[in-house]
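Design request, tokens follow.
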């Protein structure tokens, strides 16, 4: 299950991601926001991060205007490795090398076509499990 969250700036792009997930029959839970009313992205970053830590969801996708603030907020939750990606190479690399569990994107930075390709790459790339990457993740966690 994929946890989704956005602020109002990311709401429209989140709808594009939802359409992709539904077309691919990928289960998801939307933790908000639910419209374009002014809101605070840390609330949704925390909700998505906590759903992953609790085991309710496997991975998350967060979207705000730039992706920066929402990824910073998510990374405050112990055990979360949120990666801001605006290209497919970064999405692939962060899954293979960092075992990132949240993808963050900026709706004011990329368009829906690229965003869907990034989501697809992120969700379909496995962690390499190489010892050097495992060691680095352990160091980050400590």
């Amino acid at each position: 299950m994929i946890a989704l969250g956005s602020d109002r700036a990311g709401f429209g792009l989140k709808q594009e991601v939802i359409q992709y997930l539904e077309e691919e029959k990928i289960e998801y839970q939307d933790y908000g926001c639910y419209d374009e009313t002014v809101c605070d992205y840390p609330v949704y970053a925390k909700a998505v991060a906590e759903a992953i830590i609790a085991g309710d969801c496997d991975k998350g996708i967060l979207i705000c205007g730039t992706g920066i603030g929402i990824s910073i907020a998510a990374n405050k939750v112990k055990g979360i490795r949120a990666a801001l990606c605006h290209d497919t190479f970064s999405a692939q690399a962060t899954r293979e090398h960092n075992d990132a569990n949240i993808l963050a994107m900026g709706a004011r930075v990329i368009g829906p076509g690229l965003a869907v390709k990034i989501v697809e790459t992120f969700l379909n790339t496995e962690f390499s499990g190489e010892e050097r990457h495992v060691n680095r993740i352990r160091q980050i966690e400590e």
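Comment from the thread starter after seeing the answer: thanks! The chain has one domain: 2-141.
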